[in-house]
Amino acid sequence: MKSGVLITEALYGDNTDGQGLVNHIVSLGWRLNGARVALIGAGGAARGVILPLIEAGIAHLTIANRTLSKATALVTELSAASAAIHEQQIETCRTADLNGKFDIIINATSIGLSADTLPLSDTLNGDYAYDMMYGRTLPFLQHFSARGAQISDGYGMLIGQAALSFERWTGHTIDVAQATETLHSR
After folding, report:
1. Which of 16, 47, 61, 179 is close enough to 161 for a disulfide, judged by CB 3.0 to 4.6 Å?
2. Given phi > 0 = left and psi -120 to 50 = alpha, else beta, which region is 41?
3. 87-95: average pLDDT
4. CB under 8 Å to 96, separation ≥6 — which residues?
């Protein structure tokens, strides 16, 4: 306190990754409303997209992680912070135990940075597969493409979240489709 004036500071945090992902999935024509979604990974990338996916109207979310306790802890933590997550039907499992049919399967792990592959069940299928990684051939996408799924990497998510951040900082919007076309032509 200086000269009788109380100075307060507030911090504000925002993450545009999740909305960037949702916007990109919608632009691809993939239906989120009522969708059964599998999200592989329980780290920071997964944390940032769960609430936007739920707000987009998904019907069911399964979070798979190599370590089941990490996926369960993530759901518990987020459920305590958000009524929307608390009310959503969310299941957790180990990545190797993820199986069945999903509308969309999203890889939120960093495995695409290495030559390793995810331990995916032969009974895991999806209409669409999305890998948040981009910029190289991704085994996750190759796996689901071979099974007939439509696929996308995370390049559109990157551009989408950057456009949202730019708008929040400057108040100016970016035409994401035009930006994507311009960047792809380089």
Report:
1. 16
2. left
3. 85
4. 66, 119, 121
User: What does the alpha-carbon distance between residue 163 and residue 158 come to, in Å, rounded to a whole number?
Assistant: 9
* Residue 13 amino acid letter: G
Question: What number of other Cβ atoms are within 10 A of residue 174's Cβ?
Answer: 16
The ranges assigned to domains in the chain are: 29-153, 155-186
pLDDT digits (tens, 9 = 90+) for 68-78: 999 999 998 88
The reply to whether the predicted model has a pTM over 0.85 is yes
In a 10 Å sphere around its CB, with 0-12 CB exposed, 13-18 middle and 19+ buried, how is residue 177 labelled? exposed
